[in-house]
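Sorry to interrupt, but I need a hand with the structure work. Could you write out one complete protein record for me, on any chain you like? Could you add the entry underneath, on a fresh line?
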Amino acid sequence: MQAGAMSYSSEWVIPNRVILFTLGETYTLEDAGRLNEQMLEMLDQSTQSLHMLVDLTLMRHFPMRITEEVWSITKCLRHPQMGWLLAINHGANPMAHFIASVVSKTTGVKLRFVKSLEEALETLHRMDLTL
């Protein structure tokens, strides 16, 4: 991977309503900062709640401490248009699971852990009837 390459990708699952972020094996604070900026831009333009799916399945290395820096890059989770955050983890990463739980409690974002993209979409359709 070249220097400065993002270790995550994003794609709309349902245009302007549900976005999927797939995190790579190593997820850095820089990645988190870029993801937050990208999400904030989309949330600012959104007229309805925007749901975020984050696939943690491949992730192995990530920042372990919840620092001031980490807190500032979770702004998107406190945005008024932020809907549900569904983390696709499939039990692959207990520490990522724990950190996501802590972040959700401190930001107040509605978080669910699911095992697959299919389960994430089924869950969202149950929770948001406007999709």
User: Anything to note?
Assistant: Helices lie at 29-45, 68-72, 94-107, 117-127.
